Amino acid sequence: MNTPLRWPAEAIWEAVAPDLPGFTVEILPEVDSTNTELMRRARAGQFDPILLVAERQTAGRGRLGRDWQSGAGGQSESSACPSLTFSIGLPLAPRDWSGLSLAVGLSLVESLHPDLRLKWPNDVYFEGRKLAGILIETVGMADAPGARYAVVGVGINLQARRAEGLNTPPAWLHELLPGTQAPDALLQVAAPLIHTLKAFEGSGFAPFQARFNARDALTGLDVVLSDGMTGRAQGVDGVGALQVLSAQGVQKVTSAEVSVRPAPRSVAFKS
Ligand code: BTN
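# biotin complex -> structure
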């Protein structure tokens, strides 16, 4: 039988609550999806700042309407928590929301390991494989014009998992930090991430641009976008738009609904 996990709820609360009045930490043994749960609560008028962690999700969701599978059962290890899944919910009122998901990805890679990279807009990569994903959703707050309740969901693979059924081959944290359990990883990422969200609210994406580009996995690579455009990735601009040098010049890609992949050699962009 697995030993129950000891979650660092108090340490995270102490690091966050002074800057975020009303903040709570909640750990659930199981839920359909931490994002779905916080979106349900927000639609019912609960807008308090919260970190909601689930030891197991039964209907995890990813970007672009995909599922997020938490990797039940690793290939070589067993544990109650083969991945870390959590969502942060909080009211935010930035002047410009552009680049929020990029700032979140940057916060994760900077908290976790120097060898991690970011694949625009916000996937966390290790050696060309996906280690973590981010799903951000928002709800309007009738009583607070200009603010929205943001739900920032994060899934991090901890243990080895199979690639079947996944769009992108997986990477896992134990490749870089063997033995790291979900509570350890949560302690590493949660408070810095909440501080990043508050910093983004105050100053937008521009202060994160250079650090994002220093970790960008795509810069210099030929890429294909899901809308068919091809070109060479040139990092992001001050609002987080991906800059792609195409035959028509530098194109700025902003749509979160556009996915981007390194180009197979046969369709590589020629300048
Ligand atoms: C993606 O890469 O497509 C985004 C994956 C986001 C997964 C996390 S796990 C915690 C939170 N709850 C969900 O249902 N999704 C996010």
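# post-check
The first strand starts at residue 24 and ends at 28.
The mean pLDDT is 90.
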